[in-house]
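W.,

You were right to be curious about this one. When I first looked at the sequence I had no strong expectations either way, so I just let the prediction run and decided to look at it fresh. Below is the sequence, 323 residues in total, followed by the output.
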Amino acid sequence: MYRLNGRAMKAGKADWTTPFDLKSITKDKLPTVEIVYSYQEASSGAINGFVADGAKGIVTAGTGAGGISTKMSAARAEAIKKGVFFVTTTRTGSGTMYPGTTDGIFAGDNLNAQHARLILLLSLAFSSDYDTIKGWFATYGTQSIGVDPSDISKHWAEVTIVKAIKDGIVSGYPDTSFKPNKNVTRGEFAVMLMNGLKPAGEGAKLAFADEKEIGTWAKNAVAQALKAGFIQGYDDGTFRPNEPITRTEMASMIAGAMNLKADSSAATGFTDDQDIPSWGKGAVFALKQAGVVSGSENIQYVPSGSTTRAEAVTVIINMLNKK
């Protein structure tokens, strides 16, 4: 569906076909699939109304924490219990698609709402199995070319980056690049981490002094991380979502997510061990012991250094492999 010119190059080949045999169905057999637009305080009326009218699928677009307003999110959860499938077409500011944490929600990648509706309609006409439809969206609803090979080709984290994108932890940019060496902000890392963990339920109420600086695309992830105890603000009551996350802050969040016991008196073995702040030393030590971060007696940890996108996804994938 996306980048049809690229797919046209496959015409006549086996991977050009789709499972949607339109000759085998009639118009009256097509399911009802609708589109709703969200904004920060949008009500649940649109979703409830479409479900009451018999909609089998709904595409959400617009804004809101996690790509959908709180009230719409609650209505969506109830609709999923009734067998309704959803597609989210909202891409966050970090370049991430935020599909939610429950079966029944598909990520629309770079599809606009109208194209996502068409694929969902066709999918539901031929299957009601979540994993099958998810596979179709991953195959027929995504870009044909993926991440620009020149951007990550031969990069030390190439394999991990590809896996992170496939697993929905992070996405590339519209120009097909990934920008592996770009620094990650605290808000962006919270989104990546929660995309990896896929927690269920609502997050904590945000009360940071700079809450308005937290983008709508990151608020749900920050709220969930706060509720889980993975993050905390600074002494002045701020969260500083747009500040680059330091390597020590990253370690603290990952250790919290893994429920690792942090011994602040332990020596990490890094040559700059004395520079690691006491509040984060235990986390760094625990992650090194768990094999999430690597190092030897002869290298530095650089605790105050920033974290790149490649480093962030590598640590998150390592964490998930150890859980």
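Here's what jumped out at me. The chain has a mean pLDDT of 85. And, maybe more interesting for your project: The first strand starts at residue 33 and ends at 38.

Coffee later to discuss?

I.
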